[in-house]
Automatic annotation (TrEMBL):
This is UDP-glucose 6-dehydrogenase. Pathway: Nucleotide-sugar biosynthesis; UDP-alpha-D-glucuronate biosynthesis; UDP-alpha-D-glucuronate from UDP-alpha-D-glucose: step 1/1. Residues 314-422 form the UDP-glucose/GDP-mannose dehydrogenase C-terminal domain. The lineage of its organism: Bacteria, Bacillati, Bacillota, Bacilli, Bacillales. Its EC number is 1.1.1.22. It is an enzyme of class 1 (oxidoreductase).
Length: 458
């Protein structure tokens, strides 16, 4: 068993640390925030993630994981240091590497034995070469330090599972020593390992994430065309999915992708290409489609309602996807300010994301409008003039069509996640618009759909 230090206790660092402890390594997680360290020692996770607290508590009790602010002690003794600090987006779309640089320097000044530095954070291709050079420039003791790339593919909401049962482990190294050490660390997981050079490993991460973003934007583009020509994007996706070259996953059209990875990584790859004198046309298109997609329903509703001023608007779902309290790049963040600016009276429900959202938009008056946070979907829907669905949480999906009809003043629903069946909404008497499908109860359109005539875009 090896001694592993992990720099950064965000999604990537903390989940990786817990994963390594779970398979038997001795793990010390480093964070600069004293309160956060104490919180983690008492078994509380700073992030909302299924199974995480349970495994933190179990491995802490077994003495396999601990948390500290004392990076000097942590890096001095480690066989390997995993870096999982953030690489936020700069204004120009490039990745901000200042946190990586800080950690790299701390490592260089404190390692006392041969040590492998493993970068898990998503970094532009070529960064790890520079990190290795940087560490060697600042190295105090006469020890061997190399840098490896080991990108992370976990998705929020299933991060622990994605780590323990990863589809593949990508390791990018420049020496046999580094490759063998990383293989030894990962051996107990018993997962497929793909060993490549450092730059290829860095590229695999971007190419994978951006491919998925592209797949979503492609389906959203197709969805928008489906609406215009009277096709149904869910039927289209199902038909496509039988071809295993296409696959059945990530074909869900909706209100655009959000989260901490796809928006950032598409922009970073586009930036990298531009820096290298190349235009990455496919990724530019994915970014473009996604930008428009996020406010598509708002625009449709604006046409239908003339104004939101003084209307009671139910917002169901605030996080960028279910299973997380993360709001980064969530469609709600694009739409709520537009509604408030128009003077809407918003009643928002999210099972987990309310607290984070309220930090950005405190309850009460906001500009011309107001925002209120409620405990369940029904409370939000009561007497509402219009409803927007932004996240497909289980207890939002569970709201039956007749409930919209019974509770709302006018049963008018804009569904960004294609949760409901059109026929069911039609029968319940709900006026219903979604993504890439015919509307329900918009006078006559059902007939158009049946007869195969063109449905007008609304
Ligand atoms: C993603 C990748 O899945 C993961 O491998 C990588 O390490 C980090 O980025 P995450 O951002 O947590 O993970 O969520 P994911 O489930 O992939 O969803 C991303 C966004 O795409 C969400 O906004 C989601 O709603 C949207 N999405 C996903 C769609 O709109 N349609 C789909 O079919 C799938």
């Amino acid at each position: 068993m090896l001694k592993i230090a992990v720099a950064g206790t965000g999604y990537v660092g903390l989940v990786a640390g817990v994963g390594f402890a779970e398979i038997g390594h001795r793990v010390l997680c480093v964070d600069i925030d004293e309160t956060k360290v104490e919180m983690m020692q008492s078994g509380i996770s700073p992030i909302y993630e299924k199974d995480l607290e349970e495994l933190m508590q179990k491995n802490y009790a077994a003495g396999r994981i601990n948390y500290t602010t004392d990076y000097e002690a942590a890096y001095k003794e480690a066989d390997a240091v995993f870096i999982g600090v953030g690489t936020p987006e700069n204004e120009d779309g490039s990745a901000n590497l200042s946190y990586i640089a800080t950690v790299a320097r701390q490592i260089a000044e404190n390692v006392e034995k041969d040590c492998l530095i493993v970068v898990k954070s998503t970094v532009p291709v070529g960064t790890n070469d520079k990190v290795e050079q940087f560490i060697n420039d600042f190295l105090v003791n006469d020890v061997r330090v190399e840098v490896a790339s080991n990108p992370e593919f976990l998705a929020q909401g299933s991060a622990v599972h994605d780590t323990l049962y990863a589809k593949r482990i990508i390791i990018g190294t420049e020496s046999e020593w580094a490759e063998n050490l990383l293989k030894k660390i990962y051996e107990p997981f018993n997962l497929p390992i793909v060993a490549v050079n450092r730059r290829s490993a860095e590229m695999i991460k971007y190419a994978s994430n951006d491919f998925l973003a592209l797949k979503i934007s492609y389906m959203n583009d197709i969805a928008n065309l489906c609406e215009l020509v009277g096709a149904d994007v869910q039927d289209v996706a199902q038909g496509m999915s039988f071809d295993d070259r296409i696959g059945s996953k990530f074909l869900n059209a909706g209100i655009g992708y959000g989260g901490s990875c796809f928006p950032k990584d598409t922009k970073a790859l586009d930036y990298l290409a531009t820096q290298n004198g190349y235009e990455l046309k496919t990724i530019k298109a994915a970014i473009d489609v996604n930008k428009d997609q996020k406010t598509l329903l708002y625009k449709k509703a604006s046409n239908r309602l003339i104004t939101f001023n003084g209307l009671k608007v139910a917002v169901l779902g605030l996080t960028f996807k279910p299973g997380t309290d993360d709001l980064r790049e969530a469609p709600s963040l694009e739409n709520v300010p537009l509604l408030l600016a128009q003077g809407a009276d918003i009643y928002a429900f999210d099972p987990v994301g309310k607290e984070n959202f309220a930090k950005l938009y405190p309850e009460g008056t906001n500009g011309k409008g107001t925002i209120n946070y409620v405990e369940n979907a029904e409370e939000a829907l009561k007497d509402a003039n219009v409803c927007f669905i932004f996240t497909e949480w289980g207890n939002i999906k569970a709201v039956r069509p007749k409930v919209f009809k019974e509770l709302m003043r006018t049963p008018l629903v804009y569904d960004g996640r294609n949760i409901h069946g059109i026929d069911a909404m039609e029968q319940a008497g709900v006026e219903y618009y979604s993504i890439g499908r015919a509307p329900a109860n918009r006078g006559g359109l059902k007939e158009l759909k049946k007869s195969g005539l063109q449905a007008a875009r609304f």
